Amino acid sequence: MQLPEAKRKFIEAWGRLGSEWGINRTMAQVHALLIVTPGELSADEIMEALVISRGNANMNLRDLIDWGLVEKRHKAGERKEFFYADKDVWNIARQVAKERRKRELDPVIKLLDELSKVEGDKKDPDYATFNKTVTDINKLAKNVDRTLDTMMKAEESWFWGSLIKLIK
């Protein structure tokens, strides 16, 4: 397999993977293109490589910037904006975890904290079941949150070494 075909397959696979993670397929494909490109690309180059419209490219680049996965760069003497993605997979994983935590886990924990304060008769089976379920899910969510916090602060080698020790 030649490099152009391999890049195309990687971009398609990253797009499918992004869809599984709840990220727009095209957004994931733009990110994939940028992470396999040594330097930065203009919006026009991205549009051409992925055969997408200017609006689609701009919207997805803006989202990737919001996620902290892509940065905008300027080149001296150029009017165009260029876009660059960090190539370090560990940094990418930490940034995605940080954003997903902010968008998904934090609101759930806030809701669970609120629901755990519901008042009721402890002898009532409906109340007891509700309270136990919410408390258990809240504990799980907070454990996941602590794990994510550890991952985001950790160096890659320490994190994987600690995880392997836990599994054994």
Instruction: Please bin the fraction of helical residues.
Output: over 70%
Strand content: 5-15%
Shape: elongated
Examine the coordinates and then state which fold CATH places here, giving the name of the CATH topology of the largest domain: Arc Repressor Mutant, subunit A
CATH architecture of the largest domain: Orthogonal Bundle
User: Main β-sheet: number of strands, strand sense, barrel status?
Assistant: 3 strands, antiparallel
Describe this structure in words.
The chain is mainly alpha-helical and about 170 residues long. The chain folds into two domains: about 5-85, Winged helix-like DNA-binding domain superfamily/Winged helix DNA-binding domain (Arc Repressor Mutant, subunit A, Orthogonal Bundle), CATH 1.10.10; about 90-165. It has seven helices and three strands. The chain has helices at about 5-20, 25-35, 45-50, 55-65, 90-115, 125-155, 155-165, and strands at about 40, 70-75, 80-85. A three-stranded antiparallel beta sheet has the order 1-3-2. The longest helix has 29 residues, at about 125-155. The two termini are about 40 Å apart. The mean pLDDT is about 90.
